[in-house]
Amino acid sequence: MPTADEDKRKAARETIDILHEISTLLYDSGQWMLTTFKNTNLDRHTLSYCVSLIENGVNPEALANVVVDLRAQSKRLQAEGANVT
Amino acid sequence: MAGTREERVNGALEHLLERLVPPQTAEEDEAAADQRWDEANELARNYLDAEPEPGVVEDVNHAADKIKRQLLADGNLEARTKFEGLYSRLLAQPVLGQKWAILYFLQKVAR
């Protein structure tokens, strides 16, 4: 008989799976449209930290700005590295 | 969940930045990489402190409708149908308290 803790962990995993599918859906839709959505596809770990932040009261809009901005910076850094080599 | 809310937020934010901020590159010295990390931390703090409260209706159906409308606008009917199935499964999950905010976040990151 699974304990309450095991049930809760299972439910948490299932929820992250659902949210990851939604994230992938939005990413694929963006790729399909090439303009509307870009760069949504967060990996599970990144997504679970974002969920934890939001569940602890962080503003989803502000957090989205953090993620979009830092990913853009990361892309620029990779591009600069590619130009150097 | 251990610790105070602030400790949990600090911990999760640190982990998130570790995934979003690239490690030291071959062309970079340690000081430059450290500075990049500090700047990323400052950027994240500024965003979160500047907008502590969401500027939208805290309504899970509203957030879901925005995603459906966006998928419809793409003409991506298959994706929209799939989303509706995922959304009903999400509503049935007991563990999340801020479902509207997480859907809103995913939609905002996508834009």
From TrEMBL, chain A:
- Which subcellular locations apply to this protein? Cytoplasm, Cytoskeleton, Microtubule organizing center, Spindle pole body
One Gene Ontology term, aspect cellular component: interphase microtubule organizing center
Q: Which domain of life is it from?
A: Eukaryota
Primary location group:
cytoplasm
For this UniProt record, the keywords arranged alphabetically read as follows:
Cytoplasm, Cytoskeleton
Q: Which GO terms describe its biological process?
A: gamma-tubulin complex localization; microtubule nucleation by interphase microtubule organizing center; mitotic spindle assembly
Question: Belongs to which family?
Answer: Belongs to the MOZART1 family.
What is said about its interaction partners and assembly?
Answer: Part of the gamma-tubulin complex.
Q: What does this protein do?
A: Required for gamma-tubulin complex recruitment to the microtubule organizing center (MTOC).
Task: Please state what the protein is called.
Answer: Mitotic-spindle organizing protein 1
Q: Which organism's genome codes for this protein?
A: Saxophila tyrrhenica
